Amino acid sequence: MANSSILDEFKTTHLAEEKIDTNRKLKVGIIGTGWIADAHMQSYLKQPDVEIVAYADLIPGKAEAFMKKWKQEGRVYMSGDELIDNEPDIDAVSVCTYNCQHAEPTIYALKHGVNVLLEKPMCVTLDEAIEIRKAEKESGKVLSIGFQPRFDENMKMIKRIVESGTLGKIYYIQTGGGRRRGIPTPFGTSFIAKDTGGIGALGDIGCYSLDMVLNAIGYPKPLTVTGYKSAYFGTNPKYMPCKEYAEAFGVDDFAAGFVRLEGDIVLDFRIAWAMHLDTPGDTIIMGTEGSLRIPSTDCWNGSVGGAMTIYHDLCGTQTQTTVPILHTGADLFDLKIRSFLDAVKFGKPAPVPSSQIIYNQAILDGICRSAELGHEIEIEIPEI
Ligand SMILES: NC(=O)c1ccc[n+]([C@@H]2O[C@H](COP(=O)([O-])OP(=O)(O)OC[C@H]3O[C@@H](n4cnc5c(N)ncnc54)[C@H](O)[C@@H]3O)[C@@H](O)[C@H]2O)c1
Of 103, 108, 128, which is closest to residue 118 (Cα–Cα)? Predict the structure, then answer.
């Protein structure tokens, strides 16, 4: 059978429509009605077993305007906590707030027995991630983190290749990427201020590159990090839409890290919102039996950048195998929302569990701490 038909067969078996039971509807609230809340809304409205009953935003009138824009009815509140306090029957919330407001409403919701779909990055610091994990564990509720590229077939292929043993034992990974010019302004000004974004390119796009490779290799624990971060573009009015944005810029626009992972694996990572370069390189996963090259990819947009290549020996000859791109047409955001709802409804495990993403957060946090201290640091994560 030709390669393409094997892949097509896979596509159809894995994307078979599941019948959704509408007898039990889930009551959902949206906390934070900014830019990404639109994507949540769009996907929730496609689900026949969901009622969006409440909306919250700190900015007066914003939640109401959002609700009206989507031609919905419901109750509006001025904060996530207020929504949770006043909606005792709610099943779940999407936390769509900026990074510095990820931990607080998530912990509050979990402590009140509400399931949470939390946007990425998990939060800003490792300490916050630990507190989120504790609240989740005590609540027994579902907490899933919003990494929609997880549901992409090409991303799944990376994991399948690693798990198949084709690459042997993995020992070195290079990942990351970025944009020549791509600081998210003016639509995303909450991304660039320290008190809202908290972290910059690291939390916006870096966490995706890390998730792509760490998920593929089973999320080994990070042990040490040597980190670097800078803000030479964001703070320079020459590269910003106006002087005020450059003055408001309080996060990283470039970061790099060298991370030791459990199992004798090292990870070499770099991410840029802006640089004088087309790309800082491909993602490569090197193993004792083969290596995988994933062409430089904007993986935060959901998929890999092009056909991947496996380098391996075949009957003693150095050879290369091309892994063609899979085009499924699936809406990754719909899959992210549906998988979360199914976990809530049927008591399934979280589709993107915090037990993994806490390691992603530990690396982001480790890069920031190491950069500030100017030397390698050890990562310590208590058993939760
Ligand atoms: N998954 C994706 O593809 C994707 C894409 C873009 C952004 N994001 C993530 O989504 C998050 C939000 O990004 P955005 O672009 O929508 O930001 P935004 O600034 O447009 O919206 C955030 C909103 O949250 C509100 N808010 C903050 N704290 C609140 C609280 N405690 N209670 C109620 N409302 C609160 C703010 O007032 C604001 O309106 C970020 O963490 C970002 O990383 C994910």
Answer: 103
